[in-house]
Amino acid sequence: MPDSRPFAPLARDAMAYVLAGGRGSRLLELTDNRAKPAVYFGGKTRIIDFALSNAINSGIRRIGVATQYKAHSLIRHLQNGWNFLRPGRNESFDILPASQRVSEDQWYAGTADAVYQNIDIIEDYAPKYIVILAGDHIYKMDYEIMLQQHVDSGANVTVGCLEVPRMEATGFGVMHVDENFVITDFVEKPKDPPSIPGRPDVALASMGIYVFETNFLMDQLRRDASDPNSQRDFGKDIIPHIVRHGKAVAHRFNRSVVRSAMEPDSEAYWRDVGTVDAYWQANIDLTDIVPPLDVYDRDWPIWTYAEINPPAKFVHDEDGRRGMAISSLVSGDCIISGGSLNRSLLFTGVRVHSYSHLDHAVVLPRTDIGRSARIRNAVIDRGVHIPDGLVIGEDPELDAKRFRRTESGICLVTRAMIERLSY
Asked: Mind telling me which residues the site (Could play a key role in the communication between the regulatory and the substrate sites) is annotated on (predicted)?
């Protein structure tokens, strides 16, 4: 695969290490059988594809992915979609499940431990730099720019940060920085977040992205592993220690965010799709005329496993039975057979039968929507068969009895929930 840019010197000496072991319990039943990074997003990708694509597009050709919770779906996706890196080209792609390599009774105890337990693999590749990434966020970012700042600043660690309204930062790890963006304190989920110097209403929230020189990080991980009081976590242990005893520098996301060439002044798009509401909204956002996240940008593509599928198909043209979609995304192998869509997103292989109507619906792969069904403001899990005539999203009390309904009115529907309706 060619570089998206002709020259990326620091990235060539870097390894990306993706932490993809989290359950994502706030996504409720969507993560009953898959880890959060393996959850479907955007019609044909998985959440983890964004961090991996950022690495590839930045020029990084050595990648490791640490998995743990219900990892089969994630591992299968990685094997199918990310097997193009070749050792003969000084490339590598390692899937690193928690395998009790350090101790027979110890899985990954925290984010730092998920790296520590694979030190021998990392050191065997001998990258000069290592970029630690969370595998469960939606964004586009050029890590080469962050690597360059890390080298230029002489930092021991560079921390990727979002600029957010100060009182919205209470759920993040927040950086207290000086006028040069050197981190002077790292506060986990503060009630009164510190602001950026000169900008009293803005705080710097950690993105869970860290750049280290590899040898320095290995020393820190060994030191942390010997501390019986450590929680083996980057945000709680490693980063605060470096802030106190070394030099930690904040990297602002808006310096390295990849925007569409068509919308160079668009927002610095980053989303934690960790709740059903946030997940639904981020997918529905893609149906905007000009969405804040450009998935059509060929200069910074989102790589994924590309299934071999026939095109989407729309059939029937009668009043009330017209296969049509308005402001919607429809993936390959979908058949819209006399049904209609509005502001909806359909993943691969969905069937929408006659007289049915979907409005602001996110429908995961291989789902079947029965005749005359009406679905509004919903997420339908993979492989669900919606019975003929079922109505979702119109009666809040009935929805809450049958399905998972959030406070904002979004319904999550799974196969088990539909099966219970027949009893």
From this structure: 68, 107
> Which bin fits 204, alpha (ψ -120 to 50), beta or left (φ > 0)?
beta
- 123 annotated to a ligand binding site: no
Q: What is the pLDDT of residues 329-344, one digit of tens each?
A: 999 999 999 999 999 9
Phi-psi region of 181 (alpha: psi -120 to 50; beta: other; left: phi over 0): left
126 inside domain:
yes
pTM above 0.85, yes or no: yes
Q: For the domain that residue 148 is a member of, what is the CATH number?
A: 3.90.550.10
The crossing angle, in degrees rounded to 10, of helices 48-58 and 72-81 is 30
188 has binding-site annotation: yes
Give tens-digit pLDDT for 314-334.
999 999 899 999 999 999 999
Q: Which two tokens stand for residue 83?
A: 């097997």
Neighbouring-strand partners of residue 352: 336, 369
Name the strand (E) or helix (H) holding 342.
Answer: strand 340-342
Residue 140 counted as an annotated binding residue:
no
Q: Report if residue 251 sits inside a domain.
A: yes
Q: How far is CA 141 from CA 14, 188, 199, 294, in A?
A: 15, 24, 24, 13
